[in-house]
Structures
1.
Amino acid sequence: MPAFDPAAAPRLDPVAWPPERLDTVIARYAMEYVRTTLPVVLALLGPDGTRALLGHAARLIGMQYHDETARLLEIDGRGPEPFARYLAALAEAQGETVEVAAGPGGASVRLRGWRLARGLEPLDPAAFEAWCELWRGALAAHDRRLRLEAAREPGGDVVFHVAPAPAGP
């Protein structure tokens, strides 16, 4: 087999494949990867294994990429409200319909459904819990003094609440 020659490799036509189109393809690939992973890991490892393994991996990814994604989204500051804007911007980039509310007790983000899991339902709640660890990891990098509560409502909406963590000893 001959050695790989990058100069001889085929190239995409830049007119047909502008950077915006390539970015969309990459984002969709990443989302499909997660959509495939959730039910497969649930089937292989069960709910507890999914929570443990995917949850741990998701948390680390959230911690690792928070600063870069916040910079790209131009999210500045610390606290519940900037993190809610960060979470909302990422959810909107994934095609979610999002509402953000901020008040003295923290900030909330509501997703009208969970687009990532559309067509995969019913999924064990462990899949949702593992996915939420991505955002908990990002929050840990954003401001370790905050906590994130996440819930799926009976109608399918997802609600995140970001607030100061209770003071510890």
2.
Amino acid sequence: MGCSVIFHFSIGADDPKRTATMLAELWRGQAFPFPMVGKGSWVAFAGDDRGSTMEVYPRDLAFYPSDGQGEQRSEPVSRHGPFHAAVATPLSIEEVEEIGRRYGCHTSLCHRGAFRVIEYWVDNALMLEMLTPEMQQEYLRAATIEGWRAMLANMWKMTPEGEPIEDAA
């Protein structure tokens, strides 16, 4: 099996410096300016052995394909969308919730079937599913092909094809 790690991803935020600082705190990492993309961009470093980072751009920055490097444009965007990410943190539930309170971000402890997450709402617009060390273990047990099949069958009474499982009674 090959390596399957996401090294970084980028998000838009109302205040990139503040958001990158907050994300770095959730990782016990550090935030720095990210001048190579967009004016006012920042990056949060986890400080782990994989070089995990989250780049944080001004919310109105958009990328478009072009010859060579993608073109950058400033345009109005929705504050909400389907993108979210599950992110490991070394912190406890209480520590994550405290950082959320200090930064004005809504947090909520949620069950996703076979694992738990803390919904952490950056700018109360973008959801990150923060996973404490205990939650990471729950996730890793569930996020396998066999684990997912079992969860679908046992919790959702559904086949891997999305069809309902009929009771044998």
3.
Amino acid sequence: MWIYRLGLTKAKEYALTGKPVSGREAADIGLINRAVPFSELEDTVQRFAEQLASIPVSQLQAMKLVVNQAYENMGLASTQTLGCILDGLMRNTAEGKQFTDIAKEKGVNAVITARDAPLVTTAWRRSTNSQIQTT
């Protein structure tokens, strides 16, 4: 769904690299509306809720319908369906199972570190026979 927020190239960058995104960066790139310090969170949410509550419900409903329909016209529903299908398929590939097995055995941090290590080659990602080396 990131493609709808970030555009094609940025969505690919994050999807293909697995690069983590902080809350601040997510706000800066438009993935989320805003990032606020925890100490300001309650007040920020309260102000936003009050702003929405001041708008007539019929106008909120109409605007939500228009915005949601625009995304539907762009293929949101089919993209969500395809995303779920592909997620299920990819988890059951040899590479997906290998990733999961190592995460279970050595922990998520170990498998992510190994995956992102400079010595991990593109060949590993294509191979069903190689193992990730973790320490």
